[in-house]
Design goal:
56% of the residues lie in helices and 5% in strands. The chain is mainly alpha-helical. Helix 1 packs across helix 3 and helix 2 packs across helix 3. The chain is globular and about 50 Å long. The model has no long low-confidence stretch (mean pLDDT 86).
């Protein structure tokens, strides 16, 4: 992984997209252990918080799984970012229906969350 400090892309986004790219290219396979937060942060010259944030986001998106003291590993539960978002959108739609929220209101909430 390489970080471009001159880029307009945030550091965490650079790290996140590179890890996803390695997963999708098959360079990181299911069960592969990612470096510890502090180790990767030191290697890349970024703050540990940056790497911790990336790992948290990747876990929320289903790309990795944190196993406490056993570290963070590549998960086999999700595929691409698009597949992950589709699954989350389906879950959101199901939950909105369960709560009795109209489709119009559910879309309004989603647009607001996206800043649209």
């Amino acid at each position: 992984m390489k970080i471009d400090t001159e880029s307009t892309v945030t550091l965490y986004e650079q790290v996140r997209t590179q890890i996803i790219g390695q997963i999708e290219a098959g360079e990181l396979i299911v069960g592969a252990k990612l470096p510890a937060v502090r180790t990767l942060a030191a290697k890349l010259g970024v703050a540990p918080y940056t790497v911790a944030r990336v790992y948290r986001i990747l876990e929320n998106d289903g790309f990795v799984e944190t196993r406490g003291r056993n570290g963070t590993v590549i998960s086999g539960t999700k595929g691409t970012a698009g597949e992950s978002l589709q699954a989350m959108a389906s879950a959101y739609a199901t939950r909105a229906t369960e709560l009795g929220v109209s489709a119009v209101d559910a879309l309004r909430f989603a647009r607001s969350a996206l800043g649209l």
